[in-house]
Amino acid sequence: MSCPLLTIARGDSLTAWELSEVEAEYFPGEPATASDPQDYKYVNGFVDVGDLPCRVATWRDVAKRSVTLRTDWPVEALYLPGNNRRVEFSQFRHRPTRLARWCRTRVAASRDRYCSFELRTRGGVHIWVDGELAGRFEPFTRNADQRSVVHLPIKAGGSEIIVLTEDMAERDTNWFFELVLLDDVTLDVYLPGASLGDHVETLRGLSAQVRTRGDVVTADDELTLLFDTPAGTPVRIRAVIATTSHTRAVLLDAVYDLPAGATEIALCSGHDLPQGYHVLQLTFLAGDSVVERTIGCAVLHQTSAKRLGGDLADRKKQALEHAIAYGENRMGLVVALLEGGETDDPRIAGIVEETLLAMAERRDCADFVAVPLLWVWIRYRDALPANLQTRIRQAVLDFRYWVDEPGNDAMWFWSENHALCFHVAQMLAGQSFAQDTFSASGRTGTAQAELAAGRLARWFEAVEEDGLAEWNSAAYYPVDFIGLLTLAELGPPDLADRARAMCDRIFTMVALHTLEGVPAGSMGRAYDKELRAGPLTELAPFAAVAFGQGWLNKGVASLPLFAAGRYEPPEGLARYAWLDPGQVVSARYLQGYGPAAELGLYKTRDVQLSTNSGAKAGGHGHQQHVLDLRFASHPMARAWINHPGEDDPWGQQRPSYWAGNGTLPRVGQHGNAALLQYRPGSEARLNFTHAFAARAGLIHHHHDDLLVLEGGDGLVALKATGALQAIKEGPAEGLEYRCNGPLQGWAVVVAQGESLSDFVHRMGQCRLHFDGKNALVFEGPGSAQLRLDWQQGLLVDFVPQPPPAHGVTPDITISTH
């Protein structure tokens, strides 16, 4: 037998497999109504909303079927050890889709024996060993980890293991399986039938190390791939660059040669790519060896905030012109084109056609485009061809507007942003076609509008009292604006007034958390792209238009509704977004049902510290971003601390490596200082917490347990309860600092008018430690003692800190330092 590709011991995962193609089958089940377990109490995090028709149909099918082993499938790809201990195929599907994939490997023991593995899965799994069924585990619960133990007969001469992994995809689908060896033995792993070639190890190394140079590619930069280890042989790299937006588009598809001995290769100029956070799909080839890898890349042509001249009306006009020139192909662009008088633009028909198809197929997120489609119908339908008007009318009448209407789709109704958009769409559709019958509900338009009005009233009652479960979210505030701005413009007077008041509240929070034109801060829901590329988010242009400076980009989900509408944010908010030297803005308030967030803000002209002290300490995280640092020195100058939720730095799970927390911490903030206490526990997938610290605009000063970040005139210290491990290679090279231990504590302190040397000296004299009980203690010369108790929360000089006095309304203070 040849040399093994991999040898595993107790606690290791089996990560070498031959793979078939993914089998995907549209599988909707029988139409049915659904429930609304949140009932307008919006929980922050994943919510179990019951079993959709596709999952009910899956369980029914699984209960009666017999699965036959297949061995005749061609090998479509290889899954090789490297970036993920799971065998993972997570993806997003807008429609209910049954997924299946065959996987094969060969494992040899020192003698014939049974070996026990813990099987972890999301989806269903069948396992055959040497042609005999050895395990079957089919929970098929949606995005929930399930575990079992399987005992597999492994021969000394090697045993063939074949796995059929399946899942029922509804929207975001975290699909994987993992076999973790439980016995104290070593096993050799082979892929004898796979064409690994002689260079697979070289390619695996390159794929694990690859990243782009810098945190961002500007118009004057080259998009360059970097590696730690020189390639020992010439390697060919195919690079496909695509957008991460809803309208996915390929921007580049080319092949490059990486010479032997090289550690970098330039792909193209930043000027050749549009601005945005893009996906890079890389295929490494050498001889007959092939390895694939997907990473991310931010392209930002300008690195300083642009001043938008004129008053708000002028800035709205500039935003519409920018959307017409650069906006992505979504319904918001149609609003911009028609508002700008561009009725003959050929993009209009294609965008409307795609929108009608999304509604007809009831794709997830169809509600996000249904609302601006109705804006177009109400405002500009006479500019559309008669046949297109007829088709819009039919699509609106056939759409499903809520869970009480039967359906077998995978549309998500239950988060606050989706509920709002569905209700606004239902109201406008009902008003537009008052006497017509809507096919999904059987109601007249008048009845639909009346029902939607009541639902919107309940939605407003909830968010007015509780605040927003997706606070400060650069991904979802723009979605909230789809519904709110449309309602403010086109809704009945009472609901329009409430929509304007909610927009006022959101713009106030955006102003508080915007520094140098980039909206940031603790967020109720965040993805990597919102954290790593703030000026490229859809929220950034709202700040630019409202407060006079910032970034316009391709985002058109709702910005054209703001630019084309009459709503105006409250006067004077720019004073929170753009501070004078020496000014400090502090704020505290609650957000989300529960409450989900107790927010603290400390902001100078140079640095912004934002935290959520209301996170459910010790609980499983989702997409909550609990501590955020933003520097004015560069649009990408940002830092945060989290407990990673998955293995892969480029992964997209919820929580991911950088966005969200696998285990939520206890958090406390007092003025310019914040403490975090983590207790990952023995079941945590990763036993470290870490800080992300951008390189752009920041100088890192690291010594032992202290990291001081210097950005322009801003200084921040990150101090840990153990020595910080600086990561010096791979995707997180120069960005990541890890803290290890069963208990992990962090202190974050913003300097107040100190020099670098004085600040470093003072932080070096401070002590951060656990008191042997439940508290993380931070103390030092000239400052109050901060004690973060796991049960009580933050105590300052032993005095417990009360919650914010004004509830969901920010208590804002402007002072000087």
What does this 3D model show about the protein?
It is a single chain. This protein has 817 residues and is α+β, with helices and mostly antiparallel strands. The chain folds into 4 domains: 6-190, Jelly Rolls, CATH 2.60.120; 200-299, Immunoglobulin-like, CATH 2.60.40.10; 306-577; 583-816. The chain is built from 16 helices and 44 strands. Strands 1, 2, 3, 4, 6, 8, 9, 11 and 13 form a 9-stranded antiparallel beta sheet that branches. Strand 19 and strand 20 form a beta hairpin. Helix 9 runs parallel beside helix 11 (493-512). The model has no long low-confidence stretch (mean pLDDT 95).
Name the features.
Immunoglobulin-like; nine-stranded antiparallel sheet; 24% helix; single chain; 817 residues; Jelly Rolls; alpha+beta; 16 helices
Question: What secondary-structure arrangement, pairings included, does this model have?
Answer:
Elements: E1 6-8, E2 17-19, E3 23-26, H1 53-64, E4 77-79, E5 87-88, E6 91-108, E7 113-122, E8 124-129, E9 132-137, E10 146-154, E11 159-173, E12 176-181, E13 187-190, H2 200-209, E14 211-212, E15 222-226, E16 235-243, E17 250-258, E18 264-269, E19 276-286, E20 289-299, E21 306-307, H3 312-326, H4 331-339, H5 347-360, H6 366-380, H7 386-398, H8 416-432, H9 445-466, H10 477-490, H11 493-512, E22 514-515, E23 518-519, H12 528-532, H13 540-547, E24 549-550, H14 559-564, H15 574-577, E25 583-591, E26 597-603, E27 607-612, E28 627-631, E29 638-642, E30 666-670, E31 673-678, E32 688-693, E33 699-703, E34 706-711, E35 714-720, E36 725-726, E37 736-740, E38 744-750, H16 756-765, E39 767-770, E40 775-779, E41 786-789, E42 793-796, E43 799-800, E44 811-816
Antiparallel strand pairs: 1-13, 2-4, 2-6, 3-6, 5-12, 6-11, 6-13, 7-10, 7-12, 8-9, 8-11, 14-15, 15-18, 16-17, 16-19, 19-20, 21-24, 22-23, 25-26, 25-44, 26-27, 27-28, 28-29, 29-32, 30-31, 31-38, 32-37, 33-34, 34-35, 35-38, 36-37, 39-40, 40-41, 41-42, 42-43
